[in-house]
Amino acid sequence: MGIPMRQAAAVSAYLVKQKLKGRKRFPLVLMLEPLYRCNLACAGCGKIQHPEPILNTYLSPEDCWAAAEECGAPVVSIAGGEPLVHPEIDRIVEGLVARKKFVYLCTNAILLQRWLPKLRPSVYLTISVHMDGMRELHDAMVDREGVFDKAVAAIREAKRRGFRVSTNTTVFADSKPEQVGQLFTFLMEDLKVDGMMVSPGYDYPKAPNQSVFLRRPQMVDTFKALLSMPQRRKWRFFHTPMFLDFLQGKRAMQCTAWGNPTRSVLGWQRPCYLMNEGYASSFRELIEETEWDRYGYGRDARCTNCMAHCGYEATAVRATMESPLEGIRAGVGTLLGRGAG
Amino acid sequence: MMVLAVTPTLREARALPGACVAGAGARCGRALARVLDEQRPSAVVLAGVAGGLDPSLAPGAVVLVREARAEGVAPVAPDPALFAEARAALRGAGIAFVSAPALTVAAPIAAPDAKRDAWNATGAAVIDMETQVMASLLAERGVPWLAVRAVLDPARDTLPRELARWQDEADNAAAVRAALRRPASWPAFARLAMQERRALRSLRRTVPVVSATLAASREAFARG
């Protein structure tokens, strides 16, 4: 299976409800960043360059739950920083699960084995491990030797304990399609993860290594090559078929920046998870006072090379809901866990 | 201060009182040069309908052109201060719009796949047959300009094949004759006619606001 049926049903019901209420803009996934502190300094990361006082600031579990309730999105992706550095991450997760939010706990897995005994497997909880390549490439991308092996061991242990585990792979300019394909096959067949997420790198102006980022035509070529490999049939993605079509240049889409609002230690980040033009003090202020039409491919230079799932998956989900054929295709993809054909 | 609205076709000009037709397609540059020589406007608003490339834009959506692009030539952008004033004025007037590049091509792009490829390759929100040519001429002559386009056929729509070779209004009669011979094209033409009404309505609301911005700016410039 790909995305759990319960999650697919809950998200579909949520979308129908928004439509019936006539809401023009509504969130699908809350990107929750309870801290910016990380135990790695990855080449493509634009989140960890904050000054020390900000890196030392953590959202409390109560702040996190309040953000989830205020926003109302059915899915919460806990990112950062490294969420497992947060001393109360188990309470944060437990509170979100209790609120019936589908939680994706994103982690580099260095500390995962330490936390597993304190977390409870649930249909609402997916541990999403960052994996950028096989051993050599991954360790180079995260700039530390041994992280790949730690992540692999933690994934095995999490699966043994009954957790749902997915992976999150960022594709960079120096990730060869064959290398990524090899990783995907390893994740699916050897580690038996429940599903995978994939996204092209975003060229954060603050990221230390600017050479690793793809440009849009390169991205499309890379994803075309990657998703047309014969072993593709064995890969399960936690994405809509439409999003995977988009990555391969088969479908035009505009970004839905408000689909994945970001709540960090500094507030509600404008306008999206990747770009920062300041913070709103409430979710309502973020939605109502941001000039959303200013952002997107062709509209803002910073969006030119962005094809990230935090902007385009929301577009794909909404478009899927509006097209019966795409709905069936996505339903079959969910049942088979395959995503696009 | 005379601010002149210039459109490619008479149909568009009829929607905008006082607007002047400069012709569509390849001949628009020469026609605009004549208009400029005769009327000597202090600023120009380039207005018209366009094909949508940005898949989020519905028929009637307004694009304030941030940059006029065409293959093989340098893009032309309006004066940044003027552009910012126009954006603020449209926002103040409560008009929904996006500011994005427009792509000028030699012939209509009819198929959704071709529109998708043009969108992926250029990031232009709309496609037309005039803006880059006319904007280049205006820039060359030092005439301040802004361009507004309203979406006629959105990115997902296929244009009827009778319009594939459309260049200017002289081709209208031939397109109508060809459509009459092919009843299968009638629903597409009917849909296009409805979309055109929406696009022209958008232009009627938008162009006066942009013209007023240009007029105020020229007056302020003249006062020194």
Task: Give the arrangement of secondary structure elements.
The complex is a heterodimer of chains A (341) and B (224).
Chain A: H1 5-20, E1 29-32, H2 52-55, H3 61-71, E2 75-78, H4 89-98, E3 102-107, H5 112-115, E4 125-130, H6 135-141, H7 147-160, E5 164-171, H8 177-190, E6 195-200, H9 216-227, H10 241-247, E7 262-264, E8 267-271, E9 276-280, H11 283-289, H12 309-322, H13 324-336
Chain B: E1 3-7, H1 10-14, E2 20-21, H2 28-39, E3 43-52, E4 62-70, H3 80-92, E5 98-104, H4 112-122, E6 126-128, H5 131-141, E7 145-153, H6 172-180, H7 186-223
Parallel strand pairs in B: 1-2, 1-3, 3-7, 4-5, 5-6
Antiparallel strand pairs in B: 3-6, 4-7
Helix pairs in contact in B: 3-7
Could you say how many structural domains of chain A there are in total?
A: 1
**In CATH, what is the class of chain A?**
Alpha Beta
End-to-end gap of chain B = 14 Å
Strand content of chain B: 15-25%
Total beta strand runs of chain A: 9
Which sheet architecture does the biggest sheet of chain B show? 5 strands, mixed, barrel
Describe this structure in words.
The complex is a heterodimer of chains A (341) and B (224). With 341 residues, chain A is of the alpha/beta class. Chain A has a single domain, classed as Alpha-Beta Barrel (TIM Barrel), CATH 3.20.20.70. Chain A has 13 helices and nine strands. Chain A has helices at residues 5-20, 52-55, 61-71, 89-98, 112-115, 135-141, 147-160, 177-190, 216-227, 241-247, 283-289, 309-322, 324-336, and strands spanning 29-32, 75-78, 102-107, 125-130, 164-171, 195-200, 262-264, 267-271, 276-280. In chain A, helix 8 packs across helix 9. The longest helix of chain A has 16 residues, at 5-20. The mean pLDDT of chain A is 89. Chain B is of the alpha/beta class. Chain B has seven helices and seven strands. Chain B has a five-stranded mixed barrel with strand order 3-6-5-4-7, surrounded by four helices. In chain B, strand 4, helix 3 (80-92) and strand 5 form a beta-alpha-beta unit. In chain B, helix 3 (80-92) packs across helix 7. The longest helix of chain B is centred in the last third of the chain and has 38 residues, at 186-223. The interface between A and B is medium-sized, with 18 and 22 residues.
